[in-house]
Amino acid sequence: MTDTRGDRARFWRHPGLPGVDLLKAHYVRHSFNRHTHDTYAIGVIEDGIEEFSYRGALHRVGRGDLVVVEPGEVHTGHAGAPEGWRYRMLYPEVDVVAQAARDLGMPDVPGFHVSESGDPAGAALLRTAHRAAEHGDRLSASTLMRQVLHRLLSRNSRARPTNPGPPGPDRAVAEARDLLNNTLADPPSLEELAAAVDVSPFALLRAFRAVHGLPPHAYLNNLRVLRARRLLATGMRPAEVAGELGFADQPHLTRHFKRQLGVTPGAFRRGVLAAQGADTAAPDG
């Protein structure tokens, strides 16, 4: 649990549905930087107003609104009112959503609307499912969570565009991305990265941002945080994770982790391990 200048958040793992993490938070001062998730991000606003940039537009959502952010999509988040916003989020992995789509006979997961303000029953269902998970009711939580996914897929989806990818030197960007994925602890400079894929630094920077929505360094830090989340969930301590992933120190990890996920690495680790029945008595930042 975090409690910084009025902000409060709890991050934990779903007790009955593997591959789903959950967040319950009230943010007033916190502002999420531009980032992505490797999972879906699905939530309901319980009170207040959140504003977030996503797919080239600024969105404003309030009480009872549902929000869906797809994996790999760059977005932000900040308060849209003095009292901030209070929400419940779930982060299902891609395979979880894909299985829910197969349950409905869909050959592939369709794209989602960004937000939905006209589905009070869906918002209530998500809140109920989230609360069941919060209380540790594994059967109810897992059943209701699948119902949430089925409802979203059947009611709030749209057809994907046939060619959504922006133009650019795809080969160079793909090779640069793979190189960054393999050098988290000791990444190359932009010049070295560009030389490795045989393009100019400017061309790589422009093309990489066009494809991924982030420049290479921001993509790398985003990827580090995603990896950090997985390592922390295994019980690794924040200081060890910071060294493993090439962060300068634990405060460096904490700064990026909290800006992206809304909780500190230590709070995330304690929440996940507590759900697994692990010993988390020792403070770890």
Automatic annotation (TrEMBL):
Range of residues in the leader sequence: none
Entry keyword annotation includes Transcription: yes
Domain HTH araC/xylS-type: 174-271
Highest rank taxon of the organism: Bacteria
InterPro entries to which the protein is assigned, alphabetical: AraC-bd, AraC_XylS_family_regulators, Homeodomain-like_sf, HTH-like, HTH_AraC
Chain segments annotated as coiled-coil in the UniProt record: none
PROSITE patterns: HTH_ARAC_FAMILY_2
UniProt KW keywords: DNA-binding, Transcription, Transcription regulation
PANTHER family, sorted: HTH-TYPE TRANSCRIPTIONAL ACTIVATOR RHAS-RELATED, TRANSCRIPTIONAL REGULATORY PROTEIN
Protein name as annotated: AraC family transcriptional regulator
Source organism: Nocardiopsis rhodophaea
